[in-house]
Write a structure and sequence with these properties.
The complex is a heterodimer of chains A (about 180) and B (about 425). Chain A has about 180 residues and is α+β, with helices and mostly antiparallel strands. Chain A has two domains: about 80 residues, GMP Synthetase, Chain A, domain 3 (2-Layer Sandwich), CATH 3.30.300.20; about 90 residues, GMP Synthetase, Chain A, domain 3, CATH 3.30.300.20. In chain A, helix 2 packs across helix 4 and helix 2 packs across helix 5. The longest helix of chain A is centred in the middle third of the chain and has 23 residues. Chain B has two domains: about 290 residues, Aspartate Aminotransferase, domain 2 (3-Layer(aba) Sandwich); about 130 residues, Aspartate Aminotransferase, domain 1 (Alpha-Beta Complex). In chain B, about 35% of the residues lie in helices and about 15% in strands. In chain B, the strands form two sheets. Chain B has a seven-stranded mixed beta sheet with strand order 1-7-6-5-4-2-3, with helices on both faces. A five-stranded mixed beta sheet of chain B has the order 8-9-12-11-10. In chain B, helix 1 packs antiparallel against helix 3. The chains are: A alpha+beta (about 180), B alpha/beta (about 425). Chains A and B meet through helix 1, strand 5 and helix 2 of A and helix 2 of B.
């Protein structure tokens, strides 16, 4: 199967959503439990695609490097954020390549970002809390033309939910539960 | 049929999703179609016997032979279209290799789908192959099932011995306690799994009610319909996502092959198909031929099963040696009102309990001349067995009684023999113990 993507099944799913938009609603969740210091354990919550539940039996750890008061036992939150953006672009690139009948031989996405910790630590009120810049690089080998790969790059970025969330933002709502 | 002649080796309705100059997913054109099938014809207005005889059956265009020829081949000639189907993921619509699909499998699957009123079907080398592939297709890592606590032993073994190895779990509940079923659902539950009619006490589950529970909780409903065929009720139309059969029983009906089947939407059956490929439970073309031939007479066989079973159940119910009789169409059956409202045919399964316990039951079996002492069910010949030393031998007598299986319980699969002959045989046998 070209690039490991079942275009026929994808097409059927696309047209199913055109007929019933509820089939295209995906809901996700994660639960983080503090372990100690800067370390937490994350568990993926059951997600849903359309009207059906999907079991997600996955968990992973997050930590900070020693310089940021952690033990450097796991990737940190920023690395997970960047990997979420990069993986999302990568999926879009592979899917788009399959739609354009391009056979990929290699695909690598690198994502880098810079933070000014003066913002997080509130040392400088003028310093930015968010990333000041995120850079990505897509390295690809395949039978597409330069023009096709450029089209793919633009489409993969434009259609990436995670990249677009970073670029355009999303409403964040929260609550606090105090257990005494 | 070759592409050079403008024909497709497979389902001509199932085509590539792609076209030149497509840029993104929203342009993809392929939609789900019923099948795959060599002939797409709507049999929904036809009666069961007409659909059973004709749906899916393909006459040989070269010789003019009536009926589906036996395509006893493992593999098929490949051309560009076949290669394309593999590259783009619509290989289920093409003939490539018999484990993937074969005209004899397709003929049978089209017939089964027409009888069930479903979009798609798959046949397997056994009912357990069908169950395993279907359940695994609907489960993800760490998933949970809510299932009947009176499952067929083979299914129970799969759930109890194999699924925990894959970090999957099962909760077992009374199949008629709908509050308990809903209470057993967990955040990671993905399947409700029940049997339409339980073994051996023939409890009838309310599929529409189970379907409502499944939809409310965003999970799939899978029903094992082995004890009830589409002639009795169309389980997918009643709300199940998928219905599974051990086709070795009523669907084939002649006790001469082992096969399984699953029917449902094209979307879900397409999800099962890769598991059929991975687990390898494909049905041989010659077995498909036998199965297709058996399936053609399903409606008239079921009418004969019901006719003899109902008369025999009524006879047994009035016999002084018989304590209890379970048959869905008897007014005394606990689920009779549900049965009358949803079943168009009561089937051929009877369970009954006689005075004198298992010892007397064993003696009765030896005195019978027509029913054969054998496991399995659904064949043209009557088969009789005792749960205590067959299907439920792994349980203690107390456990069996807790399930309602009392000493002296007999399970009878009534064949298509004349009711009068069966009644006479039981009369002499009951008088001999």
């Amino acid at each position: 199967m070209r690039n490991g993507i079942a275009v026929s099944a994808l097409s059927e799913f696309v047209n199913e959503i055109k007929n019933d938009p509820a089939e295209g609603i995906a809901q996700y969740g994660v639960e983080l439990n503090w372990q100690s210091g800067t370390r937490s354990k994350v568990t993926a919550l059951p997600m849903s695609v359309g009207p059906h539940t999907v079991s997600r039996d996955f968990s992973w750890e997050i930590d900070e490097p020693r310089q940021l008061l952690g033990c450097n036992h796991a990737p940190n939150p920023q690395e997970y954020l960047l990997s979420g953006v990069g993986a999302c672009i990568l999926v879009g690139f592979a899917v788009g390549a399959s739609v354009m009948e391009i056979q990929l031989e290699m695909l690598k996405v690198t994502v880098r970002g810079e933070l000014n910790l003066s913002g997080f630590l509130d040392i400088d009120p003028e310093a930015s809390v968010p990333f000041t810049e995120i850079q990505y690089c897509i390295e690809v080998t395949g039978d597409g033309t330069e023009e096709q790969f450029e089209t793919l790059r633009q489409t993969a970025l434009r259609q990436s939910p995670n990249a677009m969330t970073i670029m355009k933002g999303a409403a964040v709502e929260g609550e606090l539960i105090i257990n005494n | 049929m070759t592409k050079e002649h403008g024909l497709i080796k497979g389902d001509s309705v199932g085509q590539s999703a792609l076209a030149p100059d497509m840029r993104w997913t929203s342009e993809l054109k392929r939609t789900r179609q019923a099948g795959p099938s060599q002939i797409h014809k709507d049999w929904s207005a036809a009666g069961f016997s007409t659909a059973a005889v004709h749906a899916g059956t393909t006459d040989d265009p070269i010789s003019g032979a009536v009926g589906t020829p036996i395509y006893q081949t493992s593999t098929f000639l490949l051309d560009d279209e076949q290669y394309r189907s593999v590259e783009e993921g619509y290989a289920r619509d093409r003939f490539i290799y018999t484990r993937y699909g074969n005209p004899n499998q397709w003929a049978l699957q089209t017939k089964l789908a027409a009888l069930e009123g479903a979009e798609s079907a798959l046949v397997f080398s056994s009912g357990m192959a069908a169950i395993t592939a279907t359940v695994m297709a609907m489960m993800d890592k760490g998933a949970h099932i809510v299932a009947s606590n009176e499952l067929y032993g083979g299914t129970y073994n799969l759930f109890n011995q194999e699924l925990p190895t894959l970090n999957m779990s099962v909760s077992y509940v009374d199949p008629r306690d709908y509050e308990a079923i809903e209470a057993a659902i967990q955040p990671n539950t993905q399947i409700l799994y029940f049997e339409a009619l339980t073994n051996p006490l023939l409890k009838l589950v309310d599929i529409k009610r189970l379907s409502q529970i499944a939809k409310r909780n965003k999970i799939r409903l899978i029903i094992d319909g082995t004890f009830l065929t589409p002639i009795s009720c169309r389980i997918v139309e009643m709300g199940a996502d998928l219905v599974i059969h051990s086709a070795s029983k009523y669907l084939n009906g002649h006790s001469d092959l082992i096969a399984g089947a699953v029917m449902g939407s094209r979307k879900l059956v397409d999800m099962v198909w890769p598991r059929l490929l991975a687990y390898g439970g494909s049905l041989d073309p010659h077995a498909c031929f036998l199965f297709e031939r058996g399936l053609k007479t399903l409606a008239i066989r079921m009418a004969a099963h019901e006719n003899s079973a109902l008369q025999l159940a009524q006879y047994l119910e009035q016999h002084p040696t018989v304590k209890r009789v379970f048959y869905p169409l008897l007014e005394s059956h606990p689920d009779n009102s549900l049965a009358v409202s949803v079943l168009k045919n009561g089937g051929g399964m009877i369970s009954f309990e006689i005075m004198g316990g298992d010892k007397a039951a064993l003696k009765l079996l030896k005195c019978l001349n027509i029913p054969k002492q054998a496991t399995s069910l659904g064949g043209v010949e009557s088969l009789v067995s005792l749960p205590f030393n067959t299907s439920h031998a792994g349980y203690t007598s107390k456990q069996r009684q807790d399930m309602g299986i009392n000493p002296g319980c007999i399970r009878l699969s009534v064949g298509i023999e004349d009711a009068a002959d069966l009644i006479n045989d039981f009369e002499q046998a009951l008088n001999s113990i």
